[in-house]
Amino acid sequence: MSTEIPATMRAAVYRPGHFNLAIEDNFPVPEPKSGQVLLKVAACGACHSDVLLLTNAIVDDRTYIFGHEIVGYPANMPILSVPLSCRIGPNVEGIKEGQLYSVHVITPCAKGTVALPPIEQSIGIGLNGGYADFVLVEPRQLVPVPDGIPPEVASVAADALTTTFNAVHNVAGLRPGTNKRVLIYGVGGLGHLALQIAKHYGATVFAVDYRRVARELAMKLGAQHAFSLSEITSATAKAVPFTVDVVIDFVVNEQSFTLDKAMTRANGDVFNAPPSKIVLTGVSAENLPLNSAELIEFNTQVLSTCYGSVDDMKSALELLASGAVKPVVHTVPLEEVDQAINDLRASAIVGRRVVVPGLKHHHK
């Protein structure tokens, strides 16, 4: 087997004005500069952010490779026999040969810098990402994956599980041993993970989803009840309405937010009880109906969250390693990334769809 890095690679490339990704077979393999590491991509999860970018909900005039839920290897593996020294730039230390790493995709700007938000100039969103055979990263972005976690499962921690851990643990403020009533709105790729974390912490967990298959998954994962939209609308309109302490909303549109507020209104003695919380975690381009008077009257906090820290990613990986969270994962080859994104757009995915560049594509 050759010990030379190939000059070109396969990549799913975004070009402004296009609503799909172009699979290119001869995209140049990037060369690591000082302080960079070239990873062989082992898996990269498909994310709803990709849908928003491809539908111009987030306008982007840059050309780059999509994919930001990345895990990969920087060292000799059967799939790539190349010396480690060939795949790291100068001034890089502490990278272990054979170690699977999860990539924290955000590279912070210097303080006071006026630029795009960090999330919009990160790997896979502005910078070349992981829907490819190789990707460039910085050592500070690499978090070792505990032994025993397959790459396709570990990729969930690169974004989805880190985001949900941040939402549940940091923003909602849940901790092990909690007795809170928590509702997960939207049992999709992120929601089914948040449900498991909240359940692991001891919360009484409810769910809302318009899809029967998602409600069935919620019940399988331990939800007390999984509501359809008509059921939750009726439940919140009763004389003694259905209420919870925390709603974590992975849909975030006018309908969901209206129901979020209804579910957090009956807080008993609002001046002595802890505030109820609505945690907005889903990414949406919709404007939401917000009246500060009703939030103050019912002692409701509306919070938002996006992604998480390197420490959050480490915690996410620990949840996977312990078996506390078991993602529902389906893998596809790189050539089927567009179909995966289209399925996301159509809400036709249960769990996570993960792109594995090493999977063989079967031509139809």
UniProtKB/TrEMBL annotation:
CDD domains tied to this protein: hydroxyacyl_CoA_DH
Cofactor or coenzyme needed: Zn(2+)
Cellular component annotations (GO), alphabetically ordered: cytoplasm
GO molecular function: alcohol dehydrogenase (NAD+) activity; metal ion binding
The protein's name in its UniProt record: GroES-like protein
Family: Belongs to the zinc-containing alcohol dehydrogenase family.
Domain Enoyl reductase (ER): 17-355
UniProt keyword terms in alphabetical order: Metal-binding, Oxidoreductase, Zinc
UniProt cross-references to InterPro entries, sorted A to Z: ADH-like_C, ADH-like_N, ER, GroES-like_sf, NAD(P)-bd_dom_sf
